[in-house]
Design brief:
This protein is mainly alpha-helical. It folds into 2 domains: 130 residues, no CATH class; 59 residues, Winged helix-like DNA-binding domain superfamily/Winged helix DNA-binding domain (Arc Repressor Mutant, subunit A). The chain contains 9 helices and no strands. Helix 2 crosses helix 4, helix 7 crosses helix 9 and helix 8 packs across helix 9.
């Protein structure tokens, strides 16, 4: 809990203290938490949608929902001193509710291409990265959804098995077995190089 008169900068306080501040309506604590964790939410969203624009929308929706729920008094408590698991749980919910992904991505790509060369110096790289991630998604889509989820949360987002289990509401042993089966299936696939060195 943030103590009254605490003069420490927000950046020196843990997520738990910032979370208490957010629940009390402290905008500075919300801003600090956003700066601290927006990148991990954004990366998770991009890997889940293969769309930079959707990743932006999902990141914004995740933090907007957090602030709204905090003001309503309905935000979930932290179980550890890291807000990442609950933020990714919220982001995952936003991803699952996204229904306009492919149409919006294609409209955006066509709009950029219609602008001609010089519109954005990195546009070719940007579109190429989306295409590459779309190929990765195609491979992952061969897995059952529950196995994809543990790859996204544990392998790509770096959550501990217990944190993943809490998000998915399953025992840790279930997460382990799903992760093991997913890795076995992906070991000889085009995305095998993405699986090195993660928790087993």
């Amino acid at each position: 809990m943030r103590l009254e008169g605490d003069s420490r900068p927000a950046t020196e306080r843990g997520d738990g203290e910032l979370w208490d501040g957010i629940c009390a309506g402290v905008e500075a604590d919300f801003s600090t938490l956003f700066r601290r964790h927006n990148k991990v939410v954004y990366n998770f969203a991009f890997r889940s949608t293969a769309s930079w624009s959707l990743a932006e929308d999902i990141t914004q929706a995740t933090f907007t929902t957090l602030w709204r729920r905090a003001r309503e008094g309905t935000v979930d408590p932290l179980h550890r001193d890291s807000a990442v698991p609950i933020l990714l749980s919220m982001a995952r919910h936003e991803v699952m509710n996204t229904t306009r992904g492919n149409q919006r991505r294609l409209r955006l790509v066509h709009k950029i291409e219609d602008q001609g060369p010089g519109y954005h110096t990195n546009v070719s790289d940007w579109i190429e990265q989306e295409a590459s991630m779309a190929q990765v998604r195609m491979v992952l889509n061969r897995l059952p959804e529950n196995q994809r989820a543990v790859i996204e949360l544990v392998v790509w987002s770096g959550l501990e098995l217990a944190e993943c289990a809490h998000i998915l509401k399953v025992p840790v042993g279930t997460v382990k077995s799903r992760l093991s089966r997913a890795k076995q299936k992906l070991a000889t696939s085009e995305v095998a190089h993405l699986l090195g060195g993660e928790a087993s």
